[in-house]
Design brief:
Elements lengths: L1 E5 L2 E3 L20 E3 L1 H17 L2 E7 L5 H9 L4 E5 L9 H15 L4 E5 L10 H9 L3 E12 L2 E8 L2 E8 L2 E5 L11 H7 L4 E4 L39 H16 L1
Helix pairs in contact: 2-5, 3-4
């Protein structure tokens, strides 16, 4: 069984820097980490490989510095990695990103299962997984908290439905988006780190993929952000004086002003 894991780079802090002209998130590689939900996807793929054999391919689209994050995936047990990097991919919304990822996965060869994190913690759209599945023409299941079985050409999972937990199936090849409850990611060990330095690793640009440059990056993004801003947080300290009853009355008045 060949499993593909999609990985995204996110800031390691709560501070998200925006391009003042394009209003897209700036990703310069500094203080970046693997998207936390994607770490669970890496772990689940490696667990299934260890239990049933096969291989794990880690794929990401981003700037050259994302190579470090893919090396981390290799250290955690992935067998090979592909980085899709090109200036033509910059500024992509979720649709343009899914197109590029789909092109990279097609070139990488046949697969049985694609695992993605439920969402990215910087964008919170949860759109990449389903859009990627649609680009590839395969079924998908979201919010998966357990993979119950992969047999007879089908994957059976436990997932969070609108009315609570439910069991669902999809024909292979399929794509799953995973929640944090599915597992506890392992940390790379020394053997894994050493292996990650020599494991198969390729970089593909726009010229290497079957993609239309007009449908990639900012040019191929139908979502246009017209305005972004940082919320202002203002605080004012008010000292309450007098007896407890007087302080309670002052507090009630403050609450009324805030709610009015």
């Amino acid at each position: 069984m060949r499993i593909v894991v999609c990985i995204k780079q996110v800031p390691s802090t709560n501070e998200v820097r925006l391009d003042p002209e394009t209003h897209t998130i700036l990703r310069d590689g500094r203080q970046s980490v693997v998207n936390p939900f994607d770490a669970h996807a890496i772990e689940e793929a490696v667990r299934w490989k260890e239990a049933r054999g096969g291989s794990v391919l880690a794929v990401s689209m981003g700037i050259p510095a994302v190579e470090e994050l893919l090396r981390d995936a290799l250290a955690r047990g992935a067998d090979e990695a592909v980085l899709l990097t090109d200036r033509a991919f910059a500024g992509a919304d979720t649709l343009a990103t899914s197109r590029t990822l789909a092109a990279g996965i097609r070139r990488a060869g046949p697969f049985d299962l694609i695992l993605c994190g439920k969402m990215a913690v910087d964008g919170d759209t949860a759109q990449i997984g389903p859009e990627l599945a649609e680009q590839l023409g395969i079924p998908h299941l979201t919010d998966v908290d357990a993979i119950l079985s992969v047999e007879e050409g089908r994957v059976t999972v436990s997932r969070r439905g609108e009315n609570g937990p439910e069991t669902a199936q999809a024909a292979l090849p399929a794509l799953l988006t995973l929640t944090r409850e599915i597992n506890v990611p392992r940390m790379p060990d020394l053997t894994g780190v050493r292996r990650s330095l020599t494991a198969p690793f390729v970089r593909w640009g726009a010229d290497d993929l079957d993609v239309d440059p007009a449908r990639c990056g900012l040019k191929g993004s139908p979502t246009q952000v017209v305005r972004t801003f940082v919320p202002r947080r203002e605080r004012e300290t008010v000292f309450l004086e007098g007896a407890p009853a007087q302080q309670a009355a002052q507090m009630l008045e403050i609450v009324r002003e805030v709610l009015s």
